[in-house]
Write a structure and sequence with these properties.
By secondary structure, the protein is α/β, with parallel strands linked by helices. It is built from 15 helices and 19 strands. The chain folds into two domains: 343 residues; 86 residues, no CATH class. The protein is 28% helix and 22% strand.
Amino acid sequence: MNEYSITLETKRDVEAWQSLVHVCRRWRSLVFESPRRLSLRLCCSASTPAKDRLDAWPALPLVINGFIAMALSSGTDNVIAALGQSNRVCRVILFGVADWQLEKFLAVMQVPFPELTVLQLSAYDETAPIIPDSFLGGSATRLQCFELDGIPFPGLPNLLSSATHLVYLDLTDIPHSGYISPGSMADLLSVLSCLRAFTLGFQSPQSRPDQESQSLLPPKHTLLPALDRLHFKGVTEYLEQLVTRVDAPQLFNMNITFFNQIDFDFPRLAQFINRTPTLRALNEARVQFNDRIANIALQSRPSKTNFVDLQINILCVEPDWQLSSIEQFCSSSLHPLSTVEELYFESHSSALVWENDATESTLWLGVLLPFTAVRNLYLSKKFAPAIGAPALQELIGARITEVLPSLRNIFVEDVDPSGYRSFEKNVGQFVAARQLSDHPVAISLYGDAISLSGTFLGDW
């Protein structure tokens, strides 16, 4: 099993032991004398005639898996027959499940599955049926990995309150019919002391806390001692209420995606990040703008084997909204921004265009302001005119070290002639002013340093 995902074991992997029992009677006897020690299991899928197959072998643990959306009714019946052996099933991984198939599977999964350790259900249709509270008999004591994709299960906290050995929980693309409040989710997390990876994602911004719950102060913080990965997709209000209830001192991978909003106000998220030791010393930041998303990724590599990553993604299309959203994030008093030494601005869309007016200059400066430790600034060709022309030009005079006071180098991707001339003129003034303030900045194009003393010397 992969550390951060549920892997699909093939029939060959699961049943590799069968070649041994066909060697001779002695070997067959030795293999079946230690079924648990040898991890003997049988694999069932939509193409497996389960009834005939299960009768041909001893009562070994069952692995049920496969893509079944296009399976015939006989294939669905095979899966149902295997699920009917609830006391033997140890893994269920079914993806591409159509609504009518899921209804049939849920009907036979209302009893306890005492051996179940891995469960993944992924919907094929957009309107999956709601999982009832009686699912798995209301208990999952041996469950270690649980994943739902596009399937509503509002009663999930009640089921998983018994899953005290759970290490991987992935709730992706949750429909609004499966909404679970931040308080209920925090209460669930409080009993999952072994949890290492948690993903929580909603289908739409409709899934948000009500105003009354937003005004309530949480009574205490829940310690998640093992959690090292947290992924979230939803609205800021939800995450604000969730992270104010929890602490995760070992967290090293945090990936947050927000639906588009006019205002991004997340002081509690900033507090959560600032009080998480592993996220306090990130030394590289990448600000990226794409067709449908704006992103800021903060990273560090404290050792050859460790990689710390904090990413904030904002789903929006308009360039000015993307820029405004990133500026609001950078204005949120995040401690990790002040430790960044390498700062990149990148764009992967030719459609993004900025007006280079006074309003956008103010936003660009707001983005740059918290990066007080940045020594190296990298600009793709899209950002050379956007940042260089209007924004840095405003810093001439008394404000010359107000933004990026530690800056030593600007690295610029090759730009078109008009962009080059604009960048040459305005950044040249900025560099000359930094030279006079005893904070010199060098400009490099594709790694070739260019000495500046007020103006550019020679061509790029």
